[in-house]
Amino acid sequence: MYKVFIDGKAGTTGLRIYERLEKRDDVQIVSLSDEERKNVSARKKAINAADVVFLCLPDDAAREAVSLAENPQTVIIDASTAHRTAEGWAYGFPELSPRHRARIVSGKRIANPGCYASGFISLVYPLIAAGIAPKDYPFVCHAVSGYSGAGKKAYAQYGAADRESALDTPRLYGLTLSHKHLPEMVKECALSRNPIFNPYICDYECGMSVSVPLFLSLLGKRVNAENLLEVYRAHYAGSRFISVSQEESGFISANICNGTNRMEILVHGNGEQILLTSRFDNLGKGASGAAIQNMNLALGLDEGKSL
Asked: Which residues are catalytically annotated?
C-alpha cells in the first residue's frame, strides 16, 4: 500500500488527482484537516510519511513544500511552475523520448508539465529531434482552453449569475508575450528563439486545443503533411496515450478527449503551409492525468493504472 499526500487537494488539479486515486486499492491517501493544512509542522509530517507527494500549489508554496521534504525515498510530483526548468528535476512527459521516461522512472523529483506547454512541446519536440525545424524557427502557437485551467476563481467567475458579458466570448490573454509556460517550452524543445504564444480562455469548462502553423519553405527539410504524419507516428509509436491522425470533419473541437489522459496529434495543410494541432483534456494529460501517469512510472507500476 502506497501512502500518497496531495498538498493542495482543494484545487482543481488536486481534486482530479484525488478522485482518480481514491478508487485504487493500492493507495492510502494521507489527509489533513483544514487547520492542519495551514500548519507547517503537520504538512512536513505528512510529506515525509508519504511515498508520493503531489504539489498542487502556487509556486512559492510548492518551493516551501519541497524544502520540508527530508525523506530521500519520497517521490515529489510538482504540478506548479516552480520546478519545470530546475536542475535535478525530471520533466514529466515520458512520451517525448527514452531519456525523459528513464528520468521519470528513476526520479524522486518530477515536474509535471504545464497544460499549454504539453500541447506545444508534443508538436515541436519531434520536429527539432528529427532536424525538420531549425532551433531558431519563428514558431507561433495559438491555443484555446476551457476555464477550468484557471482554477477555482474562474469557476466562480464563469458560473456567476451576474457575470460580465465579456465572459461570453473567447478572451485572449498573455498580452505581454511572457506567459509562464514559455520557459519550459523553450528549454524542452532546445529552442534558441522564444515562440509567440497566444492563449485564449473560453466559455466552456474543460478541453484544450493547441495549434502551431508552419511555413514549409522555412523548415530544414522538404516535407509535406503526409511526411509529417509519419514523423509523428514514428516518434509516438507504442505510446499508450498519444495518437496521430487527421480530422476528417473539417473542424477540430477542443473537448473530444475530456475525462481521459489521451492526447491527439493532428496534421493538416497544403503544399505551402502546415497546421499542427494537439488536443487533450487540460485537467487530464494537461494536469492530473499526467501527474498520475508519472506516479505510476516512478513506482514501477503499469503507467495506465487508474487512467
From this structure: 115
